[in-house]
């Protein structure tokens, strides 16, 4: 029960990896602040997490909106809650060729994946600094390790998150605050549906279990590790990518992610 007075804030906590992470925190007796766009989903998830005997606060916010991060921080402060662990999990992609995709949709992806993560990290890391301790888990991706045709903006946002996390972690040495990046690969979540990726060749492979990705991230966070690549296959893919020129890696990733109909047309 040593964590019974600690709070973890998790964005995108009602599904996928975020939901599985929240379950792990609740099991270890962390109280939760869970954030998502839909109130009904939050209520359902909260009732599940409370079965572990922990307190669960819900905040309904849309992190696609630029004011959402500051509003989340203000709500937490107004409720008198101190956040000990921040999990920036919420994220989304946009599938298709960059020249054809809607600009506003892609700018919203940047807002969600980058701006919201930076803002929430800024707000809560200052409080952690005053307290002299804290942990932050940022959802990166193996997509941040290689250029990604048909998901150019998404891969770009995850590259930002990866380097941002590593840089701030370095700045926080010897402060009692650690930052960890979790790098999953293609995972069995609602990500592909939200990104309109049902036609992508990448779905022909076996998708990873979100519970396993969450477990890997949770362990790395608690151990104070800098990053963890979830899954042997993903570790191998990143290792291979590191040995190839970026242009070759991009071409290879493009073949993996292209729409199935393009594959048939090229034969």
Write up this protein.
This protein is of the alpha/beta class. The protein has a single domain (7-265), classed as NAD(P)-binding Rossmann-like Domain (Rossmann fold, 3-Layer(aba) Sandwich). The chain has ten helices and seven strands. The protein has helices at 16-27, 39-49, 68-78, 103-131, 152-171, 191-194, 210-222, 232-242, 246-257, 260-265, and strands at residues 7-11, 31-36, 56-60, 85-88, 134-139, 177-183, 227-229. It has a seven-stranded parallel sheet with strand order 3-2-1-4-5-6-7, sandwiched between helices. Strand 1, helix 1 (16-27) and strand 2 form a beta-alpha-beta unit. Helix 1 packs across helix 7. The longest helix has 29 residues, at 103-131. 43% of the residues are buried. The model has no long low-confidence stretch (mean pLDDT 88). One of its GO terms (molecular function) is oxidoreductase activity.
